[in-house]
Amino acid sequence: MKLTIGFSVNGDSVEVEVLPHWNLLKVLRDVLELTGAKQGCGEGECGACTVLVNGAPVNSCIYPVLEVEGKEVTTIEGLMDKSGRLHPIQQAFLEKAGVQCGFCTPGMIMSAFALLKANPDPTEDEIRHAIAGNMCRCTGYVQIVESVQHAAAVMSGRSQERAGKE
Amino acid sequence: MRTFEYLKPASVNKALALLDLYGDQAKLIAGGTDVMVQWKKRIISPQVLISLRNLAELSFIKFGGGLEIGAGTTHRALELSPEIREHFPVIHDAVSNLGSVQVRNSGTIGGNICNAAPSADTAPPLLVLDTNVRIASTKGERTVAIRDFFRGPSRTVLQTGELVTLFSIPAPLPRTGMAYSKHTRRKAMDLPIVGVAVLLSFEEDLKTCRKAAIALGVAAPTPMRAANAEAFLAGKPVDKTTLLEAGKIASEEASPRTTIRGSAWYRKEIIRVLVRRTGLICMERAKGAARS
Lengths: 166, 292
Ligand SMILES: Cc1cc2nc3c(=O)[nH]c(=O)nc-3n(C[C@H](O)[C@H](O)[C@H](O)COP(=O)(O)OP(=O)(O)OC[C@H]3O[C@@H](n4cnc5c(N)ncnc54)[C@H](O)[C@@H]3O)c2cc1C
Ligand code: FES
Ligand code: FES
Prior knowledge:
The complex is a heterodimer. Helices cover 35% and strands 15% of the residues of chain A. By secondary structure, chain A is an alpha+beta fold. Chain B is 36% helix and 25% strand. Chain B is globular, with a radius of gyration of 19 Å. Chain B starts with a strand and ends with a helix.
């Protein structure tokens, strides 16, 4: 009954054996041992399982795994550079207290990553629109929005002038 | 083990052949944001899923007088289309606030309409736009007006072996404003308690109503047009007073249920308010379009 499919995860080609009803999150966590993406609701509501498929954030808990065949998947594990340095968005979440328990963080950062790629200097409204599908039960979102704003500034080289103002 | 076969046909014709082959054992899946959740909750247990996700021939937004939208077009693609935002803002209003970015990247307009929830956010906009639904099967094609498409909660006119290929929208009259308002408990990630789409076309004075279309979601077993309210507005000057009256008439036409999200009387109250508020946005938009 198992089928073999190939796709790319964080730049590496993988081949895995799957059952047709498995979702992408299950394969990432249980087969590929990429446990950054979390299972919260399992029904598309909370965003803890957010990963990118061909650059677009999706809920991997309801994404049929057979649909990633031949596509590129990016998870939180793929954001660090090869030397092990955190991505500026990850660094910003640490510095601006965007992380408390951390359960929402991988999904939150993947949504922020997709946002900043398309829109390097988003308004607060645009940030909130982009992370509306990522629930956080700890922070109250204020520090998360600040983390994304800080990351945007750092990534576009505006960090100096901001830091000067603070 | 509870599982299914997952088939990925390479064309619409192949998908139709598979639908014929498997009949009632099969279910179509587009973005899967309804299907996967329903499968996980054991609401549906099809033996075969036939996927439309990668069919480029179902994913397009085509302008030319009117508008054609492929059934497999994602909400996100519609949200990001500048032409939709400018020329069909009622669609932009609905899709930019449907679920989350993640849901909109997978979920399609065809899936939203064919799932036929009374709360489907794209239904009221397509209703006020007098959309025609193109349906295909191995026997050929047919077209159904969207107001005849819904048959009840989760029920449509689609027969076994049929799928929706596209939505065809005629060009609106000149001096038209259109908008969709969704009443929810919170701003994001919520199904509407009530959804209201309004389209108003004006005479040259930009005041007299030449044509009114009003559609309501979660107001009846299916998304509906408020024909009495529309007839009331036609030929009248549009202002706060006439829009409020139209709202009253629309709320009388509606037959909402009391559910966990809202009671029937509350929904009627909100319809009254939203018809007026959405009508005022239409006026602004029609004036804005006339100026540019
Ligand atoms: C967290 C979350 C939030 C949501 N929020 C909203 C919301 O705010 N507003 C809203 O309206 N909906 C919402 N939804 C519901 C859902 O996302 C939408 O209805 C979506 O448009 C469904 O599209 P899909 O492509 O994912 O459909 P699928 O799940 O793939 O299919 C839905 C149904 O349509 C049928 N179907 C699909 N394509 C075709 C076709 N071309 N021809 C014939 N039949 C077809 C399928 O067989 C199935 O019965 C939400 C869902 C989730 C999980
Ligand atoms: S676990 Fe996927 S959205 Fe909640
Ligand atoms: S940090 Fe705990 S859920 Fe967001």
